[in-house]
TrEMBL record:
InterPro entries in the record: Ribo_hydro-like
Gene3D superfamilies referenced in this protein's UniProt entry, alphabetically: Ribonucleoside hydrolase-like
Protein name: Inosine-uridine preferring nucleoside hydrolase
Highest taxon, organism lineage: Bacteria
GO MF term list: hydrolase activity, hydrolyzing N-glycosyl compounds
Amino acid sequence: MRNVILGTDWWTDCDDAVAVRLLANLHRAGHLRLLGVAVSGCMEDSVRSLDAFLRDCGVEVPIGIDLEATDFGGRPPYQKRLAALPSRFGGNADAENPVGLYRRLLAASCGPVELIEIGYPQILAALLDSPADAYSPLDGESLVRAKVSRLWIMAGKWDEPDGGRENNFARNRRASAAAAHLCDRWPTPVTFLGWEVGSTVISGAKLPDCDLLRQVLIDHGSAAGRSSWDPMLILLAAAGDPEKAGYRCVYGTASVDPESGRNYFRQASDGSHCYVVKLRPDAWYAAEIDRRL
Ligand SMILES: [Ca+2]
């Protein structure tokens, strides 16, 4: 079975919750094995709310969080209500260090692991720079090279040749610097799903009133559904094959300006990076998500 680790900002947008529900359902169905979740945004209720939501989805996995990630701005709107539900965690301090979580799970995995990132990139960038530790004698870059087969990441805006700008890479200076480092140094193939892919695909509007995910969407102000950036990445990763998931790939090398967060792409047929382009109408992708929630 394919092993995956999820990275999520679990921050101001509710498409992370739609994505977590999808991934939890795929995990419970035995389609893939979710090893753990790393949280790249940190507010008071982050870990309790994520764990409570995962438990409601029928999944209990290790959680790590970047406790310093309090500087992304905005007001996370749906976590407080979730944090009042039962959780294994008393608070954020009970969760693992996120780089330690990745190192522990990667070192312990017998087979290759695929990483799915729907949040800010500073944890993965820090993983690359991590030294050998009790979990592995390998430094971070070597450990990723040895154990990770691919990174699937919702990030960037790839339809602007002069440099697109997207939240996960450009929210603040820290995110942009980490994105630049990630694009420069990440040693495995990377598949990007950009802002332009998910913004017009609206999912999550057909949930029953009793569904906790529906409450999340309402608390976000998206009772009529939300753009599908993060859930589209989950289905792309789950398919494993972009063509089967309704996309074509553009291959080459991605880069990010560490100051502005703008992303650029140099096309090359042998590049280890690719971004996906939709081949089907928006309603098809939305239906694929909604029927799996
Ligand atoms: Ca996200």
